[in-house]
Amino acid sequence: MIKATMMGLVLAMAAVATAQAEPVTVKVWALDEPTRITETFAREFEARNPDVKIDVKLVNFANIVNDAVRAAATGTAPDITMIDNPEVALFASHNILLDLTPLLAQSKVIDRNDFYPGPIANSTWQGRIVAIPRGANTIALYYNADLFKEVGLNPDQPPRTWAELYDAARKLTDPAKHRYGLVFSAIASEEGTFQFLPWVQTAGADFDTLGSDGALRALQFWQKLVDDKVASPDVLVYRQNDATGQFAAGNAAMSISGPWELPTLQKDAHFTWRVALLPGETATSPRASALGEFANAIFKTSAHPAEAFRFLEYIYSQAARNWNEFGMLPANRSAAPQDPKWPDAYAVFVEQMKYARGRGPHPLWPQISKAIQTAIQSTLTHQSDARTALATAQASIDKILKK
Amino acid sequence: MISQLLKTLRDGDGFEAALVLAAIGYLLVFAAFPLVYNIVMSFQEVDMFSLASFDRPFRGLDNYRDLIQRPEAWEILRNTIIFVSCSVVFQLGLGFALALFFQLDFPGAGAIRGLFLAGWVMPGLVVGAIWKWIFAGDFGVLNYALHSAGLIDKNIFWLSDPAYALAAVTIANIWLGIPFNMILLSVGLAGIPEDIYEAAELDGANRWQRFMSITVPLMGSTLGAVISLGIIFTLQQFDLVAALTQGGPANASNIAQYWSWQMSFQTYEISAGSVVATLMIAVVVVVAAIYVRSVQHEHSA
Amino acid sequence: MKRSLLTGVAVVLAALYLFPVYWMFVTAMKTSGEIFQYPPAFWPASPHFQFRAVFASYNLGRYIWNSLLIATGTTAITIVLGTGAAYALAYVRGFAVNVALFAILMLQVLPPSLMVTPIFVAFNQVGLLEWPRVAVVLATAAKTLPFYIILCRATFTQVPRELRDAALVDGNSRVGAFLHIILPLARNGILITGVLVFLQSFGEYVYSRSLIADKELQTATVGLSTFLGADANDWVGLMTYSSLYVTPILLIFVVLQRRIVSGLTSGALK
Predict the structure, then answer these.
(1) Cβ contact, residue pair B49, A237, below 8 Å
(2) What is the mean pLDDT of chain A?
(3) A137-146, A254-263, A270-279, C116-125 — which is least confidently predicted?
(4) Mean pLDDT in chain C?
(5) Is B216 within a domain?
(6) How far is B211 from chain C (nearest CA, A)?
(7) What percentage of chain A reaches a pLDDT higher than 90?
(8) Fewest CB atoms less than 10 Å from the CB: which of A205, A335, B289, C79?
(9) pLDDT band, residue C268 (cuts 50/70/90)
(10) Which chains touch C (3 or more CB pairs under 8 A)?
(11) CATH, range C69-207
(12) Which of C231, C233, C236 is the best residue to mutate to test the A interface, defined by the most A CB atoms within 10 Å of its own CB?
């Protein structure tokens, strides 16, 4: 906090010194988000840095990677773009991102050792830091405390293991009331992989050991949830926010999703909801959770890398606002918010963050992810049994890893 | 010399030639390049960061061989054939039936027919979202209606059951295609002079005979155009798959154009995506050839 | 009696067909919880309207203006270039015509989502991206032109050749025969196809999204996509926005198509 204030002072002084010069324009591509986070930071930064103009272009989630790649290929890249953390490796492996390691070594604002290990690992390629995580996200278990009481479950003791989760889901399922015990996302997109991997990881496996028993148990557990109708078969087409929509509407009593859902739930859920850590396979299994969120990278072609980096420093300095204003956690430890909204949920997500593991990193991550999605979907619909599906996925992933 | 040229342009064969060449010239400038670009990429090893240049390693038919060996290739081919043929048959059948129906003279026919244009006006994003809710297994309106009518006693998971997913996408696509077929066939029907029917009626032809001997032949060129464009449009339908099933579950509703997009833009296997696009171009070659033949037939009739 | 029965049937058919449109309107008035409720609510418990708020806060007026410009430009290019070609292809025979028809059908085969990368690369090379809306118009017209030519050609084949031959005998030039005799008779098909082209280009999304970088120049369909974010979907907002923009267009074209389809061509031919 003190650091951030000092930073502001330093910047303000620098601004006075250079106010005469023609402002430099830094082009930034950012996600189109209702919180307008990047635009907010850009206006604040400009106010303190009259020598820099930040030109923000908003791109939607589905297209940001493709647009950035196309721009890089055609020489129309911006100075800064946002990249989803599993795809940083894709850009970095083509050597088009500016190596930020030397800048970080000199930075008085960013302390690279302050980052949680997951986010910074996914922003690192071959030992060089190529992006600055703008925040971090992970998933946990949301549950409807009112319904817990109604069916005789103790809302102060949410499920901690798969077995407890299954039992709770079973009790909470009520076909007469059109209610499932649990909802999650098994969609054929990155979101499905994001939700599935923690189950594999708590069972001792990972994306490169899908043929193992742990991965098999994870997938069979998901299959059982759907087969026994404690989760809707439509989880196959639900995005995570569709899943939360079902939870908020009372169609499901528990839901797995991240902190970005908090504003929606506050608005739409007319019951007492709480958040718990994602259950492990057993009480002694390692905990695991997914790691999400975007990172900001500077293209090598940028004509104003110093100014661009200053903007990234500013974003970093504001990370304590991430939770209350922008629905995500900070990616660095020291940026804890003073007075977090939803304090109970905040405590759970911070705890969960310790177990969050990145996907990859691998430049061909999207292909690996696709193989995992196909395994999930063909198993949950019984087009294939879990063992065969995972063996097929592992075979394709092995081929990709060998490339 | 120049005045001769002007004369043929104004009042000779040059006039028609110039009209056609202007349009084809435009298309060659703006539409031929992407086609060629796709075809070239299907024979190369393409890295997504080399999109701006043609200078890439040549792989010959290897990309094609790799594609055919993928386990999902045949399922997707089968899905595409079902999707296109069912879409076109039902769009045309229902569209033609509606066009004939609204041709009957009754109060409000014109205005009510116009309402069917809604399918053409609604933005793809909205159509996708609405059909997703209609088909939803747990809270969808379709299941509710079927339930209330006593047709089902267990919910059908239209989007996540491999037995139904392709049907769901096809139904939504038929809905989208009806206005196009109906409105164009209506125009065609309005162009057939009344007195031909009257003469046939005097000759004692019944409704069906009149339909087969007058309507269908006189509508020949419109039908040919609508069918061939219908096939091409269906081969371009893409938003619906993205909104409803993402080609899932596990490719059960995946079709060629979506697969091509997935490979080019999601997993960045751009060569493979271009191979699928090139194969689709090959299919359209056949459709176009059939269309041109039907046009020749129309000349000799 | 029988005729009003037919009207009844027509209303039922239209009601069935329009259900998804109705669902859009109703959803715009629901709360987000009601969207997922079972049994589904065919009318919201307490309808709430946020039409005015959505219109103002999402810059909808500006977006619709851009969409209108792009649709008008696309339709203009398509009609100017396409009508003559369609006429020529309907009246001239021979191998060259077959080749031309074949080429025209072929050139629109790929979906825009697969065309957009090469178009972006090429337009960027020649500097067309400096005029993003023009770039979208040019790219979209290449998409609509084949469609328009094939359909208009079908209309021209319904105009008897004898009329043109007679006009030529009467001393008209070919240009004159086309403009004064044939064109008025085919007006019907030209207008309806033009309307379809206009509506299609009004709803264009892929090219606008990729070729237009400046938010101020963006179209209504792209504005629509901002309701579906990475983290949250504002379904009610999305449906409100699309109701706002679909309704006026639909009403205008309901009126227009009635005049066009039941227009003068069939009368003039008698």
Answers:
(1) no
(2) 91
(3) C116-125
(4) 84
(5) yes
(6) 17
(7) 78
(8) B289
(9) very low
(10) A, B
(11) 1.10.3720.10
(12) C231
A378 token code pair: 């063909």
Residue range B89-105, pLDDT digits in tens: 999 999 999 999 988 87
Are the Cβ atoms of B269 and A189 closer than 8 angstroms? Answer: no
Cβ–Cβ gap B184/C151 under 8 Å:
yes
Beta carbons of C38 and A178 less than 8 Å apart: yes
Question: Which two tokens mark B51?
Answer: 């999109």
**Residue A119 carries which side chain, given as an amino acid letter?**
P
Homologous superfamily in CATH for domain A2-137+292-357: Periplasmic binding protein-like II (3.40.190.10)
Q: Where are the alpha helices (DSSP H) in A250-320?
A: 262-268, 305-317
C49's tokens: 């309207």
Residues of C with CB under 8 A from a CB of A: 31-38, 117, 120-121, 124-125, 129, 209-210, 213, 215, 225-226, 228-234
Nearest to C245 by CA among B118, B37, B73, B71: B118
Tell me, what CATH number does B77's domain have?
A: 1.10.3720.10
Any bridge partners for residue A339, and if so which? none
CA–CA distance, A374 with B267 (Å, rounded to integer) = 13
Query: How far is the C-alpha of B172 from the C-alpha of B170, rounded, in Å?
Result: 5
CA A57, chain centre distance (Å): 22
Residue B93 lies in domain: 72-300
Task: Tokens for B267, please give them.
Answer: 């997993």
By C-alpha distance, the chain C residue nearest B23 is C81
Establish if B261 belongs to a structural domain.
yes
- Between CA C120 and CA C135 the distance in angstroms is 9
Which chain A residue has the Cα nearest residue C226? A32
Mean pLDDT of C117-126: 87
Residue type, position A347, single letter: A
Interface test mutation site (partner C, options A177, A241, A326, max chain C beta carbons within 10 A) = A241
- In a domain? residue B230: yes
Give the max Cα distance, chain B.
Answer: 81
Domain range A140-290+364-402, its CATH number among 3.40.190.10, 3.40.190.100, 3.40.50.1820, 1.10.510.10: 3.40.190.10
In a domain, B19, yes or no: no
Cβ contact, residue pair C13, B118, below 8 Å? no
Q: Quick check: B138 and A234 CB within 8 A?
A: yes
Q: In terms of Cα–Cα distance, which of A282, A73, A253 is closest to A177? A: A253
Beta bridge partners of B194: none
> Cβ(C112)–Cβ(B282) under 8 Å?
no
Ordered by start, the domain boundaries in chain C are 25-57+234-270, 69-207
pLDDT value, residue A62: 79
Residues of chain A in contact with residue C218, where contact means CB-CB under 8 angstroms, are none
Look at A270 and C228 and tell me if their CB atoms are within 8 Å. no
* Cα angle A187, A188, A190; round to 5: 90
Task: Give the integer Cα–Cα distance in Å for A127 and A125.
Answer: 5
Number of domains chain B is built from: 1
Contact B49 A96 (CB under 8 A): yes
DSSP state of A277: P
Secondary structure class of A70 (helix, strand, coil): helix
Residue reference for tokens 């604002």: A109
Q: Where in chain A is the domain with CATH 3.40.190.10?
A: 2-137+292-357, 140-290+364-402
- Per cent of chain C over pLDDT 70 is 93
Q: Which of A251, A367, A377 sits opposite B249 (nearest CB)?
A: A377
Q: What SS3 class is residue B55?
A: coil
pTM: 0.89
